[in-house]
Amino acid sequence: MSEFPFAPGFLERPWWWEAAPPPAPPPASLPDAAEVAIIGGGIAGLSTAIELGRNGVRALVLDREAIGWGASSRNGGALSGAGGLGKVRSDLVEAFGKEYVSELMEESEGAFENFEAFVAREGLDCDYVRCGRFVGAHAPSAMEALKRRAELINNAGTEEAFLVPRDRVAEEMATDRFVGGMMLRRAGSLHPAKYVRSLAAAAERYGATLLGGVELRSYRREADGGFVLETSHGRLRAGKLMIATNGYTGGATPWHQRRLIPVASYMIATEEIGEERVRRALPKLRVYGDTKKVLYYFRPSSDYKRILFGGRASFTDADVRRSGATLHRFLTHLIPDLADVRITHSWKGNVAFAFDMMPHIGEHEGAHYAMACNGSGVVTMTHLGQAAAGAILGGANRPSAFARLDFPTKPFYTGNPWFLPVVGLSYQLRDRLDGWRVPKDGG
Asked: How many whole angstroms from its chain centre is CA 120?
């Protein structure tokens, strides 16, 4: 019998994979050449392949794991437009200037609208619903930050963000831990594993070849502007190259690796508790987050029978059984009514942060890239993949505003985030200073 909080039959894998597991890579037969080679078979890479295919260019998508195996099928499935852009940093205007931030916000809002149109146009089976997003304020100072964030979002012209006072938090969720919050109307949820599976099917429909189980070892640019790729399955020549490896970027692309901070994010799924009880905990069935440094994100499952809960359960590479117990403690501290509920699944996936906490798209020595979703990946990576395809095709009427951002790194950083445990301790201290307290195990 499983020890609480683990249900009998507990699984160390994403709950999403019960409905849409990544396909086992077939024996790879690598072609000699490709018009465009895309490294990374997640949302960004597949979105690039779809947009290229719609314009008559057939892409070859390679991934060292199964197509869609990474964060693309492991994430929380929550999405928004400009609301996601303002999530990780509150000093956008100070850092980049009002006019440029307005461009970024406008593009992000447009990306959300385009995403909804894209899902409808391609008939993607992904359980998408526009449900809104509630962000809980963990301290009074956080309400001021949310006020500034709402103003920034509404200044983009949508007027879809508003503050929720403390006495109305109960309308959004069954907790007394938050001092208020912010509601975003233009936000939604989907089933990420179904989404990436549908993207893969659409990419193949537009002529792309998808090969999982093929690892890029190195690449070089040729005098004619093309590329030679050395892979685990042989050599390949490509006219164009796109890097879309995000949180799983390795040593084969060291320039990109030096600019990304891979951070493990953890999730759990509760056992089925029924829609009535889910609604008691989360009455509006939205997607949810908070303002803490050690943040939480959570939502009902797509069938509304269980609750999915994620966060930074550890700043080292923890096993998912241990992280699952930690997340269960976080969940029941936030929503005490769920104290008796067990968990059936626990998993983790890598999120990629940039040093400036911004998404990035561009070109380095001829190779295109789209990466650094900073924890808001579904809409962002879909949009940046499509924008990268426009740059590859050379016919984009309006290049992405994100392409004008420098992609910074730090001296002596090689891609190993040795500093994360220190950052984690400082985040925990900041949350405690703000008054947030979570009982220890057994306390």
From this structure: 21
Instruction: Give the separation between CA 429 and CA 436, rounded to whole angstroms.
Output: 9
By CB atoms closer than 10 A (0-12, 13-18, 19+), residue 434 is: middle
Beta strands in 335-429 (DSSP E): 343-353, 360-364, 367-371
Q: Phi, psi at residue 17, to the nearest 5°? A: -70, -10
Q: Which CATH architecture best describes the domain 6-404?
A: 3-Layer(bba) Sandwich (3.50)
Q: Are the C-beta atoms of 48 and 393 separated by less than 8 Å?
A: no
120 by Cβ neighbours in 10 Å (0-12 / 13-18 / 19+) ranks as exposed
Show the tokens assigned to 194. Answer: 């179904």
One-letter amino acid at 243 equals I
Residue 1 has pLDDT above 60, yes or no: no
Cβ atoms of 262 and 364 closer than 8 Å = no
Query: Over 70: is that where the pLDDT of 89 sits?
Result: no
- Weakest mean pLDDT among 66-70, 133-137, 429-433: 429-433
Taking only the tens place, the pLDDT of each residue in 21-68 is: 999 887 778 999 999 999 999 999 999 999 999 999 999 999 999 999
Instruction: Please state, in angstroms and rounded to a whole number, the distance separating the CA atoms of residues 293 and 203.
Output: 37
Number of Cβ within 10 Å of residue 204's Cβ equals 17
Residues linked to residue 210 through DSSP beta bridges, in sequence order: 61
Backbone CA torsion sign across 406, 410, 412, 418: negative
CB 273 within 8 A of CB 341: yes
CA 115 vs. chain centroid, Å, equals: 15
Question: Which residues have CB under 8 Å from 365's CB, separation 6+?
Answer: 221, 255
Non-local CB neighbours of 219 within 8 Å, separated by 6+ positions: 227, 228, 229, 230, 241, 252, 253, 367
Share of the chain above pLDDT 70, in %: 95
Write down the domain spans for the chain. 6-404
Task: List, in sequence order, every residue forming a beta bridge with 37; answer none if it has no partner.
Answer: 60, 241
